[in-house]
Prior knowledge:
Residues 308-615 form the Beta-lactamase-related domain. This protein is of the alpha+beta class. 28% of the residues lie in helices and 32% in strands.
Amino acid sequence: xxxxxxVAVVLATVLAGAALSGPPALAVPGVPSPIFDPDxxxxxxxxxxxxxxxxTSFATHSKSYLIDDLDIDTTGGxxxxxxxxxxxxxxxxxxxxxxxxDAGFHAAWVEASNQGxxxxxxxxxxxxxxxxxxxxxxxxxxxxxWTSFRGLTSAExxxxxxxxxxxxxxxIDIDVYDTSQGLRYSVIWVQNAENLAWAxxxxLTSAExxxxxxxxxxxxxxxxFESVRTTAGQRYAGIWVENRNGRGxxxxxxxxxxxxxxxxxxYSDEGYRLVAYNKYDTAGGVRYAGIWRQNNDxxxxxxxxxxxxxxxxELDSTAVPGVSVAVFHNNQAKYLRGFGFxxxxxxxWMDSGHVGxxxxxxxxxxxVLTMRMVEQxxxxxxxxxxxxxxxxxxxxxxxxxxxxSSRGCVGHYGDIDTSGFDNVPYATALAAADEFWDEPLxxxxxDYHYSTPGYTLLGAGLEAAGGDNIxxxxxxxxxxxxxxxxxxxxxxSAGVRRMTEYTTSNAEAxxxxxxxxxxxxxxxxxxxxxxxxGAKLAAGQILTQASLDTMWTAPDADSNYAYGWNTGxxxxxxxxxxxxxxxGALAYLRIYPEDGIVVAVMMNDRSGSQxxxxxxxxxxxxxxxxxx
Length: 628
């Protein structure tokens, strides 16, 4: 590094005397870097909360997390709080206080300082025309020298700027606000113990900010950002700090609320955490800005560009509204991404968190549930179905294993009229099975005949063996104990981020209750949890190896369909997979068990030529071929 980069780089302009008004700047604790800028850390962010909502969140999270950034605004007269949280890795003491008047803030400042804490964030805002202040203090474990100022004129700010720079401190927070006496400035300075190069620019037009951003982007990362509306137009400011560890970062500004949400999820998928957030007024309305920091190795995955290209080609060539993909290797998420739209009309981008039907991939989940219950001694694959459910008509001579492997000779669509089953709230699989079990078998068990209704009979047997309804069995034996979150029996009333399902010409498909076929096609998930389900299986975290071997071995040569899964070999490597589709949904899960590779794909339309299974196979081949 050159001598110029070893010393503090100070780049500043002086704000002109135009009238300004606006919210506080973004701010983060900044230093020490190993604590407040780790390579990876748990995080969360909250946006546009009322005071009461924020208080509830604070009580929930403050024991394990601390606030990186606090943003309070009263844009439009509504009190709202935005906050960014980071895991409190060294469990240092900290506190947050808000809605203080000038004297109250000063008293809190003195008290915290006497307690060995330093200020990392200060906010000012108007509530009912009265100025209020908020602050975040952290325990000054490193004993860094620091100071802060409020209510500075522009000239006073410049004087303090030079004074603090000479004292070896760096700014971590700057705030500009309008008062009846004119513009005032607040700033927090802290000892630059790591000798980090830094830069501060203020009063930039949008074009000037873009130019400065491009100049600094390679060697610096943004620590803070601010935008204020002035009579001369929108103005921007920021603090940049040397990006010594070279980790990736992203900053976006002037976003609508919907745009901010889209990018929040996009960057989270791509492996970034939000570190700073700002909401501000512009001539065009309220806008948002955010700074994201690389939080894992996903941004550096060698196959990222190739996989992006393949998915985009699927989107472009088929006009499918949205695609979400997850790739895991050795139980680690290597790739998460959504393409296209989860909701076209509302301009919601698809991401890995959007929940949809996994259709017949539910059968693979049913296979795992059954093997879990086998391991628990509740059921056996050789158990006769009628021994478990004596009320089942006598012609059902199949076993649990026959039903699970589609060798129970139960009719499929076309053999059994299921048209009246959708949107009927069946409390149990047994109740749904009673609707059609009088229908004759279509062959003699254990001949192979793929059947979705057969999985409803399987569910009835598992209910008898497990002493609970099939939905609860899935939740208590898979979803909850393995932290699979959204992978659960479909619940259309639940408050999840659901992808809109589409039919021909992007017409919205109606959501339908599929209670009658929970294990045959009635499970929902987002692609992240579907991928994690596969990854946990491949890692041996759900079933023993003996159970996996059984589940993934076809019982005869009639078909490669084993117990809920299709089986095969690719270039000498074992492959297991399951696809699913119905109106408005395509899903696919592909696992290379011996290689620890998992690919999950979900789409929100099946009316065109799009092919989730082929996309999953292509991505799987890319990963397999990349292995040494």
